[in-house]
Amino acid sequence: MKQILIGREQEVQLLRDYLDTEKSEFIVVYGRRRVGKTFLIRQVIGNQSCFSMTGMENAGMKDQLFNFYFTLRRVWPSATLPHSWIEAFDELRNYLENLPKGKKIVFIDELPWLDTVRSKFIAALEWFWNGWADGQENIKLIVCGSATSWMIDNIINNRGGLHNRKTHQVYVAPFTLEESSRYFTTYGFGYRKKEIAECYMVMGGVAYYYSLMTPKESVAQNIDRLFFATNGELRNEFENLYRSLFKKAGDHITIVKALAKKMKGLTRNQLLQITNLNNNKKFTMTMEELEKCGFIRSYIPFGMTKRDVLFQLTDAFTLFHFHYIIENKFQNETFWTNSLYSAKYRAWSGYAFEILCLNHLSQIKQSLGISGMQSRACCWISKPEEGHRGAQIDLIIDRADQTVNICEMKFSRSEYTITKSDSEDIENKIEAFLRQTKTKKSLMLTFITSFGIKSGKYSGQVQRHLTLENLFKSLSL
User: Fold this and answer.
1) Are 185 and 282 in contact (CB under 8 A)?
2) Helix (H, G, I), strand (E, B) or coil at 180
3) Would residue 5 be called left, alpha or beta, if left means φ above 0 and alpha means ψ between -120 and 50 degrees?
4) Fewest C-beta atoms under 10 Å: which of 68, 78, 217, 437?
């Protein structure tokens, strides 16, 4: 079946608007590996580009220049082989100057791969844009790359010649649940919302991972085939993902491994203690890179200060890797199917559902009717007290209208039954929260579940409850 562009309405409209101006535009498209950046750009520009090339992974400067030359020669036979990136961009300039008047779209994909050691690629790109293209009419330079931290540091936040030179940036995020649902419907999958949510909890909404699934198999069969079969196509994806994003990914992997074991997150000092990494600038940069790439988030717990900031894993695929893939010690090809009713599955699904909720906070706020209201999402952890049990609230939405949503997130196969134990745990959390924070704000107990709450003895204490139906809503509605 021919590939179809699913969702991305906002990104498509932005790109079209930028391409329709009369002035020259330097457009940066970025996002993690496999989310569909290249497909999006090619769908928008169609056959309008006059030059389009893709950098080569793990290739030296000489091979990258050959790649540039061979690509340019296909559209301009007069091209000569460049020996530096300055010469390459001068060749590109000569070609563009010989084209008829009108829009000239240049698309360079996987830009970070071109910036090899001592290549002076960035300096040459600066020379091309600042010294010529920016002063022309209708030059549309689109650059793209999966190494998100490189794109942000070297292009978007460049402090040299490209500082504030890019005219627009477009971030391509993984699919939301609503976009995931559209994808599966378009390609003939009969999955219901729970199964689609489960796919998201494993694959994090990454379009390419979905594309490897087949509607002839159940979700469990697809997951076993892709991740646990001997030659599973995604069996080694974790290493490939991190190595493609970061030049030296060892520390990044060590950090996310530690965070995968602590859903609420860890402080910087806790991370340093657990990982045995050095407390230096390199560690700070590693944390920043992970956050820029969307693998973790930093936040200040309710009632705390900046020195208490927590770092929390927000990437579902990374969580799945550490909870499942590396645990398949006996190379069981049906490891996933055989664990669906196990304690291991229940523990993982609880964490994964919390990540799903964190990644759909906008949908949660929309469903609560507070989309336009200033608010912040965080957790709360009780301080040790004599005579009182500890307490932790994994999601608090602190609102500007003097209200706090105390959120409980529960993933289940049917309506969730609030037990006596649940009720006592909730009461302890709220009592501890009121006692320690001394907040004067109103508290609203909010449950976020798969299929709602079953009416029962303890269900009346819940003021608001949301289900997967709410999380699947489009933000455009």
Assistant:
1) no
2) helix
3) beta
4) 78
Q: What are phi and psi of 154, to 5 degrees?
A: -95, -20
Q: What is the mean pLDDT of residues 68-96?
A: 96
Q: What pTM value is reported for the model? A: 0.91
pLDDT-derived band of residue 476, with 50, 70 and 90 as boundaries?
A: low
Residue type, 266: L
Beta bridge partners of 139: 104
Tokens of 40: 């999006």
| 30 bridge partner residues | 145, 171
Asked if pLDDT for residue 164 goes beyond 90, the answer is no
Identify whether the C-beta of residue 236 lies closer than 8 Å to the C-beta of residue 325: no
- What are the pLDDT digits (tens) for 106-142? 999 999 999 999 999 999 999 999 999 998 989 999 9
What burial letters (b/e) apply to 325-335, b meaning 16+ CB within 10 Å? Answer: beeeeeeeeeb
Smallest Cα–Cα separation from 51: which of 28, 79, 81? 79
Q: How far apart are CA 472 and CA 205, in angstroms?
A: 13
E runs forming strands in 242-317: 296-299, 310-313
For 393-440, how does the pLDDT look when each residue is reduced to its tens digit (9 = 90+)?
989 999 999 999 999 999 998 999 999 999 999 999 999 999 999 999
Q: What percent of the chain has pLDDT over 70?
A: 99
3-state secondary structure of 407: strand
Give the C-alpha separation, 153 to 447, whole Å. Answer: 39
Question: Could you tell me the two tokens for 221?
Answer: 């069969």
- CA dihedral sign, ordered 322, 323, 328, 329: positive
Which band of pLDDT confidence, cut at 50, 70 and 90, is reported for residue 383? confident
Is there a contact between 95 and 51 (Cβ–Cβ < 8 Å)? yes
> Other CB atoms closer than 10 Å to residue 431's CB: what's the count?
14
Distance CA 427, CA 447 (A): 14
* Whether pLDDT at 200 is above 80: yes
Label residue 19 by pLDDT band (50, 70, 90): very high
Q: Looking at residue 280, what is its pLDDT? A: 94
Taking the C-alpha atoms of residue 427 and residue 182, their distance in angstroms, rounded to an integer, is 40
**How would you classify the pairing of strands 296-299 and 310-313?**
antiparallel
**What are the structure tokens assigned to 377, written together?**
């999402």
Nearest CA among 13, 11, 54 for reference residue 170: 11
Give the DSSP per-residue string, 96-151. Answer: HHTSPSS-EEEEEESGGGG--TT--HHHHHHHHHHHTGGGSBSEEEEEEES-HHHH
Sheet bearing 375-381, strands edge to edge: 375-381, 392-399, 403-410, 442-449, 464-466
Q: Is the per-residue pLDDT at 451 higher than 80?
A: yes
Token digits of residue 139: 């030059």
